Amino acid sequence: MSRTIFCTYLQKESEGQDFQLYPGEIGKRIFNEISKEAWALWMAKQTMLINEKKLNMMDTEHRKLLEQEMVNFLFEGKEVHIEGYTPPSQ
Questions:
Q1: Would you identify the family this protein belongs to, as annotated (predicted)?
Q2: Which pLDDT tens digit goes with each residue over 30-61?
Q3: The CATH number of the domain where 41 resides is what?
Q4: Does the residue 18 lie in any domain?
């Protein structure tokens, strides 16, 4: 059965995650406030960031950077800035 939550990112009722995808307090907040749709948008950005910045997920500093970008994107409405990436024009 799917959960409906109010998605902070999309600012509307939307389908919530099936389980907590990220550890700790941030993970709880994502579970309670970020929909599957918004999480999928973040996943695409995250992949681009990892590739662009050649991030190593074994590196604590790299993980911190990614977490900060994730919080900025999901909760503060900040666009992820990726060097050399131009979003397709609408």
A1: Belongs to the Fe(2+)-trafficking protein family.
A2: 999 999 999 999 999 999 999 999 999 999 99
A3: 1.10.3880.10
A4: yes
